[in-house]
UniProtKB/TrEMBL annotation:
It holds the Pfam family AIRC. The gene is purE. It catalyses: 5-carboxyamino-1-(5-phospho-D-ribosyl)imidazole + H(+) = 5-amino-1-(5-phospho-D-ribosyl)imidazole-4-carboxylate. SUPFAM superfamilies: N5-CAIR mutase (phosphoribosylaminoimidazole carboxylase, PurE). This is N5-carboxyaminoimidazole ribonucleotide mutase. Its EC number is 5.4.99.18. It comes from Wenyingzhuangia marina. The lineage of its organism: Bacteria, Pseudomonadati, Bacteroidota, Flavobacteriia, Flavobacteriales.
Length: 165
């Protein structure tokens, strides 16, 4: 089980690092690369067409601006693709990236997370893998239980601080 994480340029790495980090937490191997839909179309074709042959289970693709990378990957790969819209310096408040990834034609699905939402992309990739891997599924269950515990603890702190006033 391996997740490929690709991005349009190295300026996307600070956002995409969150997907890498959460997948490491779930002990899922990652393959990270820069694949530009516009500047390296041959590399894009090779990556997308062959990822499943290299043992990749899910692809996370992040891009800013016109953000064609996730859709182009999905058009050539049989694997699930999760798109991460990245708010870039040439972006229109990130909406151009969101819509470029979200508005895919029928037959070419791309799961889309929130603007700069790479952490959720990593969690979703783990959940996809967890559907057929009980070890990963157990890790996700524990992670979500941890989220619940954090909220309960925060609620108790808020209640206690309010009672003291």
């Amino acid at each position: 089980m391996k997740v490929a994480i690709v991005m349009g340029s190295d300026s996307d790495l600070p956002v995409m690092q969150e997907a890498i980090d959460i997948l490491k937490e779930f002990e899922i191997e990652t393959e990270v690369d820069i694949v530009s839909a516009h500047r390296t179309p041959e590399k894009l074709f090779d990556f997308s067409s062959n990822a499943h042959k290299r043992g990749i289970s899910v692809i996370i693709a992040g891009a800013g601006g016109a953000a064609h990378l996730p859709g182009m990957v999905a058009s050539m790969s049989p694997l699930p693709v999760i798109g991460v819209p990245v708010k870039s310096s040439n972006s229109i408040d990130g909406w151009d990236s969101v819509l470029s990834i979200l508005q895919m034609p029928g037959g070419v699905p791309v799961a889309t997370v929130a603007l700069n939402g790479a952490k959720n992309a990593g969690i979703l990739a783990a959940q996809i893998i967890g559907a057929s891997n009980s070890t990963v599924l157990d890790s996700i269950v524990a992670y979500k239980e941890g989220l619940k515990t954090k909220v309960i603890e925060a609620a108790e702190r808020v209640k206690s601080s309010q009672q003291e006033k």
